[in-house]
Amino acid sequence: xxxxxxxxxxxxxxxxxxxxxxxxxxxxxxxxxxxxxxxxxxxxxxxxxxxxxxxxxxxxxxxxxxxxxxxxxxxxxxxxxxxxxxxxxxxxxxxxxxxxxxxxxxxxxxxxxxxxxxxxxxxxxxxxxxxxxxxxxxxxxxxxxxxxxxxxxxxxxxxxxxxxxxxxxxxxxxxxxxxxxxxxxxxxxxxxxxxxxxxxxxxxxxxxxxxxxxxxxxxxxxxxxxxxxxxxxxxxxxxxxxxxxxxxxxxxxxxxxxxxxxxxxxxxxxxxxxxxxxxxxxxxxxxxxxxxxxxxxxxxxxxxxxxxxxxxxxxxxxxxxxxxxxxxxxxxxxxxxxxxxxxxxxxxxxxxxxxxxxxxxxxxxxxxxxxxxxxxxxxxxxxxxxxxxxxxxxxxxxxxxxxxxxxxxxxxxxxxxxxxxxxxxxxxxxxxxxxxxxxxxxxxxxxxxxxxxxxxxxxxxxxxxxxxxxxxxxxxxxxxxxxxxxxxxxxxxxxxxxxxxxxxxxxxxxxxxxxxxxxxxxxxxxxxxxxxxxxxxxxxxxxxxxxxxxxxxxxxxxxxxxxxxxxxxxxxxxxxx
Length: 577
Fold this sequence. Notes:
35% of the residues lie in helices and 24% in strands. The chain is of the alpha+beta class and 577 residues long. The strands form three sheets. A nine-stranded antiparallel β-sheet has the order 9-11-12-13-22-19-18-15-16, with no helix packed on it. An eight-stranded mixed β-sheet has the order 1-17-20-21-14-7-8-2. The chain has a five-stranded mixed β-sheet with strand order 6-5-4-3-10, with no helix packed on it. The relative contact order is 0.10.
């Protein structure tokens, strides 16, 4: 029990120590045009590592900045059952993204009647997919160019619908086509650039400077902000790791690059010039701090895409919630855009996390179970499956406790002879058929599962807004703190039962009282779904712990039971009678 509590503390403490005062809800505005181009022509990919703002964002010495004159812009609205996107004719960028199946938990998004608004994830000052074209020593600011749109608004129902923006900037003819699906958050994008020349060009795609806060716990949401890149493995660069007034350049080619919050993501996937599929030609990514605070909540992210001599560049953008099935359908391990665990442990934890999340979704969608009952069922199922391992571990621990007095006597007898002591201890283990490590490995095997459950229940969007009993949202803390208290009390009960029938131990007694209090303090404000799982695990463990305690007491009684010796009367005593 203490080992499980320890591993939970290891999982919880880093996030607890990273807590900081939540920044203001409004992020500082950032100019739409942004800094100078982030990258170099297609023949020169970005440099590796961390560089200064001047190094990573500078243009070649002979380059010229071409900016279109200010012209009024219009907005094209694209609607479906899943989303409401708004695209500006200035630069053809996405300036609004609302997901109709999700409500904002941000108190600022609640109207006077107390009703919640649908989620808006994009910052209104920057938008998404503003681009610049680096060609022939020039940088053409397409994001400042006003295009002509093919439609004013469109509703996507049964089949994909395309919206085209056309115009000219710096002598380059530009046609950008967006194709929207009725039942997906995936957007197909094609850009045609006439006049790029035989050397091709580099397209710099702006992924914005971070999302709006959509959660009730802004501090927790901001900690998850970051840029994720996929080369051989996924790599998460959190905004909070960036130094103020600096930028970090990541080298490609990447298969995809994404900007994420806790529950939502904008992922960019690049195509080759023939449209044959993803080839990983995102040349590099620059993440530049734009909101200078101790732990940034805003960082401008720019990715470069090669434009071949044909002048045609294609890519996909996923702009939506991190629903596992949809992320998986994107391919290229995009389901790992929200990495579980810490670097070095993700390889071990991820298979368990994916399996757990898949099972949760299956139980919910196939059997029609609410996610609260899914957590309860899963907790009981895990305890049943781990019963043999726990039984083996507890029996081994009971056997070790039974020979503890003899071990103590050996240690006192041979305290000055370590070699003899070791020999006698091994002999004692062999005589009593005890493996001193038998109680360890069965307890270690479930640890990856335990950690995976922690990360899944703390971060999965499927629990967001799910009600269970008195808890309005399993992804948020229990407002009445009932579940954390039940978790702590059940933990104390397990500890109490586990020490019954054992010799008095002041350290064990202290741990029995202290550990439930420590776990209660750390987990009090964590997701109620997570505390529900731990409470169910503890309650489901009580019968097994009780049986082990009874077995231990029987063994203890057998070892101290009095022995009756029967003797025959003496022969001379009979003769005397």
